[in-house]
Design goal:
With about 450 residues, the protein is of the alpha/beta class. Helix content is about 30%, strand content about 15%. The chain contains 15 helices and 14 strands.
Length: about 450
């Protein structure tokens, strides 16, 4: 399949008017077949092979005619916009896979599992390298696709195959060895399932990964997320408070032994949920380095608190705040309530938080980003005290128009009987929406 796609080339969705490609006669619907004699199979090939100042492009028009032209670009973009990547689907059946725990009736895109190193490079999505092909490995090294984001879970080959539900999964240590030799930077994650890959097994895996430093830049240690929809799936349980405390203590010991990288990046970092479960203080900013694992829930609380401190250093505040209700997940409710208390005092208006119970995924799911529109409605019913209902954008898909269950913000507004405003889930993002400021 990969060879056939390479032969077909990459379809062009659009061409910039007046660009070198447009002047050469390339149009939307044409297919780029090769660059300087090398086959093009996806947008990465096209991008990297045309990044040189001089190259020969071969393309086929929608009529079937094949053309070739040499381009010499002097600070000018070629001007072609290729088709999106055809996502490579994941063949694993991980015992903790969140997609397998989703209820029915959600947006179709939520049920897509990808295992695509290109998306790891472009968007920071995690891949397991469980069936990395020679072609993919060669492309990573040829184009130096770095950093990549890797799901490890354990370095024990047999246990990893069991956790991935894939008896043919590659030995990840061999993959890491090849990538580290090629100078590829990696940010890894370990999803911890109590009684399976925690405790001594977790520590052993982290020590194994530390051997690949500095190529392995960071490792995020994340507690398994479990929904109420696990019928027919392997038996798993959540991390307990004592286990969270033991894991944090082990990570502190390990970091002292391993130390920081030359650029100050910490090695093994715990997701915020571990600190919340353990009832321990969130570390300072230095503990998170560049916040490379922020999308994995590592350092979100620290970043929010630092953002709030920065905002509250503002000496003067605009007039006109009307107050309102702010939706939050239960895990962040205390943090949000503390912030809104000080925000209300400075704004001269009352803002209060409403922690929403997640009935869509199950009450054990407490993060804000997995709330459905129905969850928000049922939680704010009778609790909206005038003003506006503020909803963090993390609850919406990228397009910004639907919640996980397909409910729209307009529907929530209509049924709640109050205006709904969407805000970036940061202190400054909330300030901007309250005062209608436009930020770049």
């Amino acid at each position: 399949m990969a060879e056939r796609r390479a032969a077909e080339g990459v379809a062009i969705d659009a061409v910039s008017s007046g660009s070198p490609a447009h002047r050469a006669g390339i149009r939307a619907g044409d297919r780029v077949l090769a660059v300087s004699g090398r086959s093009v199979s996806d947008l990465l090939d096209l991008h990297f092979l045309t990044s040189r100042g001089r190259f020969t492009l071969e393309w086929r028009s929608s009529t079937g005619a094949v053309s070739r032209k040499e381009f010499r670009l002097r600070g000018e973009a070629l001007g072609v916009y290729p088709e999106p990547i055809r996502v490579r689907r994941c063949g694993n059946r991980c015992i903790f896979c969140f997609v397998h725990q989703l209820p029915r009736g959600l947006r179709r895109s939520l049920y897509v599992k990808d295992e695509d190193v290109r998306l790891s490079f472009l968007h920071g999505q995690y891949v397991t390298f469980s069936d990395l092909t020679e072609e993919e490995s060669a492309k990573i090294l040829r184009y130096r696709l770095s950093p990549l984001y890797a799901s490890i879970h354990t370095t024990d080959p047999d246990l990893r195959r069991r956790m991935l539900g894939n008896p043919r999964a590659s030995d990840v240590m061999e993959v890491l060895k090849s990538l580290s030799r090629g100078g590829i930077a990696l940010h890894c994650q370990i999803v911890v399932c109590p009684g399976i890959n925690d405790g001594a097994e977790l520590e052993r895996s982290l020590r194994d990964l530390s051997m690949f430093r500095p190529s392995v830049r960071t490792v995020a240690v994340v507690p398994v997320g479990l929904t109420a929809h696990r019928h027919g799936l392997p038996q798993l349980r959540p991390v307990s408070r004592d286990e969270a405390r033991a894991t944090l203590a082990m990570l502190r010991r390990l970091r002292k032994e391993v130390g920081r990288s030359r650029d100050g990046e910490p090695f093994a970092v715990a997701a915020d949920e571990y600190y919340l479960l353990a009832g321990e203080r969130i570390p300072g900013r230095r503990a998170y380095g560049s916040f490379a694992q922020i999308e994995n829930g590592v350092g979100l609380v620290r970043q929010f608190r630092d953002g709030a401190a920065s905002l509250f250093r503002r000496r003067t505040w605009p007039a006109g705040a009307l107050g309102g209700t702010v939706v939050t997940g239960k895990s962040a409710s205390r943090l949000v309530a503390e912030f809104l208390g000080e925000f209300s005092r400075r704004a001269g208006a009352r803002f209060h938080a409403v922690p929403a119970t997640n009935r869509l995924m199950g009450e054990s799911v407490t993060v804000t980003g997995l709330l459905g529109g129905g969850d928000i409605l049922s939680s704010v019913e009778g609790k909206v005290r005038g003003g506006t209902l503020f909803v963090p954008s993390v609850t919406l898909r990228d397009a910004g128009d639907l919640f996980l269950d397909g409910v729209s913000p307009e529907e929530v507004s209509l049924r709640a009987g109050t205006p709904v405003r969407i805000f970036r889930p940061t202190p400054r993002g909330f300030f901007d929406v309250v005062y209608n400021e436009i930020r770049p």
